[in-house]
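hey so u asked for the seq, here:
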Amino acid sequence: MGRLKIIVIAAMTSNVRRPAILLSGGLLTLAAGTLLVGRLLAASVPSSVGPTPPGFEEVHIQSGSGSMLAGWFRPGQRGRGVIVLMHSVRESRLTMLDRAGFLSRAGYSVLLFDFQAHGESPGKHLTFGWLESRDARATVRYARSRCPGEALGVIGSSLGGASAILGEEPLGADAVILEAVYPDVEDAVRNRLRIYLGPMGSPLAPLLLLQFRLWLGISPQDLRPVDHIQDLGAPVLVIAGTKDRHTTPAETRRLFAAAKEPKELWLIEGAAHVDLYRFAGREYEERVLGFWGRTLRSAEDVADVQLEFREGQGRDPVALPELPDVAEAAR
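ran it, structure tokens below
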């Protein structure tokens, strides 16, 4: 009888321990998986961008991030202004070539480049705007040196926009266009986890956010464009899509509300987290040229630029390589 009692107690203890062991194993697997995902998300994304397009010159720019940034520069009509184009995360300057094309045809000088750890610019990790903000300032300074005395605008898409806003020193631009820029990295991480994992994604956000200090040596609090947009010191146009789930319209409005006047907001009906120029086409061109006209040039000048552009009387067309369609992607 005593032996039977021991067997029963052992069986009961085993039944209690088994779920606990399975739960512990599951939690360890989840933690290990989250660590792996965090490391992969911060991994560099080198890629070849191909030959320099006709009319452009290859340039290399030393950045405070420690990277030697690879880029392309095309001079425009003297006195018209220069635009620096800043791409989104895990992309390269290739995704900004279409914008460079229409801006160049409108007479602007253009500079496009690869952020550190992207494209052909070396770097160990993506830092989601921290080191990239130093790249943004280095390229603005370079553009100033190439076009002294001219007005300077910046177009920053997603990571590019966040990098333009973040940083320990002012960007130094005369006007800025921000496309699909997250107000803070915590919301950005949660949104993406919900998109890819559904309701179970949100609880994983703290595990990923903790890794910013582990892998990158920074805090999520260092990546809050909403806290710094008021320091841009330049007119700003904020653009986003009404169907964007990565940076929601509510988040875009929050970022816009934190900016100082003069400022403008354009929510593109039906657009998700995609290349907004490719989505909106001609309207994008006209809105951007209009904004540059109101902020970088006189009203008379911009009217002339837009008329020339519509009638095809601007600069010779820029020959650009064919790019694949840009699908909705996490940026």
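The CA atoms of residues 67 and 276 lie 28 Å apart. The radius of gyration is 24 Å.
lmk if thats what u needed
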